[in-house]
């Protein structure tokens, strides 16, 4: 049996990148839920979902993303999507949720947006 969704976590200073590859649906969304819940429980509230490898996403997957966006916001952080395209871009457009989930072109752009930088010494 093949894995429908592979979920891996990469930690960066100040944020966690959760990489999704495969199909995110009712059967596989618990894996995403568990990964996001573990990151929040560990104190990481700046979450980036690398969705560039998603081949499919249904409403359950979308609901999981929205739920954890709310949880991250409540913890003083954020949830951003990196690499939105294909089926997920279409789903966000059709549902009118393009503004509800912050999206960036790729992981580096999401990291820049999610992790505040300290001002340079002497800068005002």
UniProtKB/TrEMBL annotation:
Cross-referenced Pfam families: STAS_2
InterPro entries (alphabetical): Anti-sigma_ant, MlaB-like_STAS, STAS_dom, STAS_dom_sf
Domain STAS, residue spans: 5-118
Coiled coil: none
Gene3D superfamilies according to UniProt: STAS domain (3.30.750.24)
NCBIfam families noted in UniProt: ant_ant_sig (TIGR00377)
Membership in a protein family: Belongs to the anti-sigma-factor antagonist family.
Matching PANTHER family: ANTI-SIGMA FACTOR ANTAGONIST TM_1081-RELATED, ANTI-SIGMA FACTOR ANTAGONIST TM_1081-RELATED-RELATED
Protein name: Anti-sigma factor antagonist
Source organism of the structure: Streptosporangium fragile
Organism phylogeny: Bacteria, Bacillati, Actinomycetota, Actinomycetes, Streptosporangiales
């Amino acid at each position: 049996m093949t894995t429908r969704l592979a979920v891996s976590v990469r930690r960066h200073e100040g944020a966690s990148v959760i990489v999704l590859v495969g199909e995110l649906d009712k059967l596989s969304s618990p894996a995403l839920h568990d990964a996001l819940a573990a990151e929040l429980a560990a104190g990481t509230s700046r979450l980036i979902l690398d969705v560039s490898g998603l081949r499919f996403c249904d409403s359950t997957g979308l609901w999981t993303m929205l739920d954890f966006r709310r949880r991250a916001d409540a913890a003083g952080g954020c949830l951003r999507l990196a690499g939105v395209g294909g089926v997920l871009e279409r789903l966000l457009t059709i549902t009118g949720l393009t503004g509800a989930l912050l999206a960036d072109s790729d992981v580096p752009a999401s990291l820049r947006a999610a992790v505040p930088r300290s001002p340079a010494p002497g800068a005002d």
